[in-house]
Amino acid sequence: MTTLVTTPVHALSHPAPHVTTPVFEGPIDLLVHLVNTHEVDILEVPLAPVVDGFVATLREHPGTVSLDARSQFLLMAAILVEIKSQRLLPGRDDVDEDEDLSGWEERDLLLARLLECRAYAAAADAFVVLSEHAARSVAREVGLDDGLVVHAPDLLEGVTPDRLAQAYLRATAERPEPRVDLSHVTVDTVTVSETVQALAGTLPGRGRVSFREMTAHLGSRIEVIVHFLAVLELCKLGKVVVGQAERFGDLEIEWVGEDRPLVESLIGADEYEG
């Protein structure tokens, strides 16, 4: 004979009623866990006496079991009934599953429901803690003292007709045209296209010449940079070869193109776009 023993529930942390069966005695949620892990055979657990005992307890002591405990018992009992019915009824294909694969569907469904129950229980515990903290405070029933009341400032304080007229004149006065100072901007006096043409006329016949020697007469940094880009363009077109004897050494430039190259063949267009 299976009997059911319930204990008064005063908190959400222990809501599950206890059951006593020939193979198990304890909370019903623990029974569901043991059935899920195959530590207790569901076929050996009679379910009808468990439900009848719980109903009899509710009739005899209706105030000892909380609503949360009743809801959880119904959920756990439904899970046990579903697991037992699936064990008793034949499978989908009427074939025996492998021992390692049997019960996976039941375990997945039970695990999902247990996790959902645990989440609801944790949320209920959090609400209990918030309610306990809120019960320790007493709301203020009176307003602030006169010395603590903050009044909105007067936006028109100190505004006179003379100051208003001056503000209007400043707002409607003609603004001076902005002038951009271009004294710091460097104006290019030479372009890469012009430098390519100049080097194409001077490099043939000079043999190997260093880049330092080629730019020794230049007076600004921008001119040196333009000459370097022109050398790179000539190297890309295959008109010169650039070498370096040692690391960080001088660049040696040697003309390998035609003696009288055409400007169009060097830059490929009327104007250099690099």
Which helices and strands appear, and what pairs or packs with what?
Elements: E1 3-5, E2 18-20, E3 25-27, H1 28-36, H2 48-60, H3 67-88, H4 104-135, H5 161-172, H6 192-202, E4 208-210, H7 211-214, H8 221-236, E5 240-244, E6 251-255, H9 263-267
Antiparallel strand pairs: 1-2, 2-3, 4-6, 5-6
Helix pairs in contact: 1-3, 6-8
| SSE pattern | EEEHHHHHHEHHEEH
Tally of individual domains: 2
Oligomeric state of the chains present here: single chain
Summing up helix and strand content along with how strands pair, one would put the structural category as mainly alpha
Q: What does this protein structure show overall?
A:
This protein is mainly α. The chain has two domains: 3-91 and 100-133, no CATH class; 192-267, Structural maintenance of chromosome 1. Chain E (Arc Repressor Mutant, subunit A). 45% of the residues lie in helices and 8% in strands. It has nine helices and six strands. It has helices at 28-36, 48-60, 67-88, 104-135, 161-172, 192-202, 211-214, 221-236, 263-267, and strands spanning 3-5, 18-20, 25-27, 208-210, 240-244, 251-255. The strands form two sheets. It has a three-stranded antiparallel beta sheet with strand order 1-2-3. A three-stranded antiparallel beta sheet has the order 4-6-5. Strand 5 (240-244) and strand 6 form a beta hairpin. Helix 1 (28-36) packs parallel to helix 3 (67-88) and helix 6 crosses helix 8. The radius of gyration is 47 Å and the shape is elongated. It starts with a strand and ends in a 7-residue tail after the last helix.
